[in-house]
Specification:
Layout lengths: L1 E5 L2 E7 L6 E8 L3 E4 L6 H13 L9 E3 L5 H4 L2 H7 L4 E3 L4 H4 L3 H17 L9 H9 L11 E2 L5 E2 L2 E8 L8 E5 L4 E5 L25 H13 L5 E4 L8 H22 L5 E2 H8 L2 H6 L1 H17 L3 E6 L2 E6 L1
Parallel strand pairs: 4-5, 5-6, 6-7, 11-12
Antiparallel strand pairs: 1-2, 2-3, 3-4, 8-9, 9-10, 10-11, 13-15, 14-15
Helix pairs in contact: 5-6, 7-8, 8-11, 9-11
Length: 326
Amino acid sequence: MFKITNQGVDLIELDTGSPVGGVNTYLVFGEKLTLIDTGANLEKNWELLIKALEERQLTIYDIEQVLLTHHHVDHVGLLDRILELHPVPVLGHPNNRPWLLPDKQFVEWHHEFFQQFLSEFGVPAELCGAGKEFFDNLQPLSCQNVELTLELNEGDSIPGLSEWQIIETKGHAQSHISLYRKKDQLWIAGDHIIKHISSNASIEPPLSRNQERVKPLIQYMDNLKKCANIPTSTVLTGHGSIVTNLPELVSERLSDIDDRAARIKDIIKDNDKSGFDIVNELFSTKTVKEQLILVVYETAGHLDLLLHRREIVEMKKNGIKYYRSF
């Protein structure tokens, strides 16, 4: 069902296909009718989208372009279905490309990267295939064959949405962008800002083998601070309800990150521990078993941060990285 969100922007809530619950997509009524994100590739979502458009006396054929906040499956999954009926332009950050049109080499590199990353993190050999398993389980919910029509980067204006500009908000994903409308200080923030939970800073393989891995939590923090310094009235989020107190929420998120970092420092004080050792002290056995990749993301991000601040040291023994605080 459609809900009116703000002037010229309508919310359509779809499903993620996961315990996360709903995902927010938006119709923006600019010079071009623009769909922001699409929901996961689920029959339920396709029916909800069609119904929501009908309630506005619209059809798929009235959508003139799709703009992606980032490449995660709950935000791009219906692209194939939409484009099969109505091949409109798809706009987004250039880093969406390998995820929207994954070729064999990229998929192989993804699996190879996570196999090595998890092994060096101290994850037992029998669990080091978790990265591949996580990727493979998500693929049915994603699109499979989409070319990005137009690349959008920091500060770019958007064809058909002349009142809006692009703000780069990497961290949760390396393809992440947000939209900002200056006249009423309105954000469409994707998963960079979520009211009820913190956004996971996802570890991603570099786009090529000769590049260093990006440190996403540090990136995420920098972009939170950047957003908090831009005048904001309302933030339309990728999940959950709107945010009207952005600076306060950013302060809370940064404080939570510092608290988790301090706890990790305490865990490894005068003791060499692998990343997986730390994971098992931070999270319950059930959580580690059910959400291994997500808790590794969380822990690795905070270790990146502590290394960046020079508050801990990293050493490698027998192919495994260990950490100790001063």
